[in-house]
């Protein structure tokens, strides 16, 4: 159980620390043969709220038998569709372990920090949206300061901050999967044209 861990996305060892924290948490999950769902929440229509889709986009290639990614720049998971996505997840996966990722607002000194907790997160809480809590484990990136006019704050968030957070979180998750599950078994698929060219080269 992770009570609450906070890492600075600008620190050179941020991704490493995320990997170590997640690996310890996920090893029992993997041993129990549970499927892992990484749910990246947010929308690309708002800079401050684009953290989740950016992380999902960076992890699109992270395909494993027991690891599934929901939410990216092309198909974001946001306030209007999250209930449908959650229903879809629970239909397709039996009792999965869900890692929920979302942007959040916080104190000025915490902007740029990654927060990991063994508890659900509340999507849209900054904007007072009534959405279901989600996640067995939550990863939030503090993208800007909380206070008032949260919608405007999210719209005027620096892309640099969001990108640094997305890079640290996605890299940490990627290396967690490599450490706990291993590399993807690759298979080479050659097109007919490439095979024909290879045969032609061998015969010449």
UniProtKB/TrEMBL annotation:
NCBIfam families the UniProt entry points to: spore_YyaC
Biological classification of the source: Bacteria, Bacillati, Bacillota, Clostridia, Eubacteriales
Organism: Clostridium punense
Pfam family, one: DUF1256
Name this polypeptide is given: Sporulation protein YyaC
InterPro entries: Pept_HybD-like_dom_sf, YyaC
């Amino acid at each position: 159980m992770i009570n609450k861990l906070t890492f600075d996305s600008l620190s050179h060892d941020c991704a490493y620390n995320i990997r170590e924290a997640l690996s310890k948490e996920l090893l029992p999950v993997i041993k129990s043969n549970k499927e892992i769902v990484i749910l990246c929440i947010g929308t690309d229509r708002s800079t401050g709220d684009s953290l989740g889709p950016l992380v999902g986009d960076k992890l699109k290639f992270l395909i494993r038998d027991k690891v599934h990614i929901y939410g990216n720049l092309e198909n974001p998971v946001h306030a209007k569709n999250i209930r449908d996505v959650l229903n879809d997840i629970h239909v397709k996966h039996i009792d999965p372990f869900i890692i929920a990722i979302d942007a959040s607002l916080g104190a000025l000194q915490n902007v740029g920090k990654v927060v990991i907790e063994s508890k659900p997160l509340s999507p849209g809480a900054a904007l007072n949206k009534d959405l279901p809590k989600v996640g067995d484990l939550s990863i939030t990136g503090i993208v800007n300061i909380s206070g008032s006019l949260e919608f405007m704050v999210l719209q005027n968030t620096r892309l640099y901050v969001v990108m640094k957070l997305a890079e640290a979180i996605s890299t940490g998750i990627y290396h967690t999967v490599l450490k706990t599950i291993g590399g993807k078994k690759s298979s080479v698929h050659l097109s007919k044209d490439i095979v024909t060219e290879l045969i032609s080269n061998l015969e010449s």
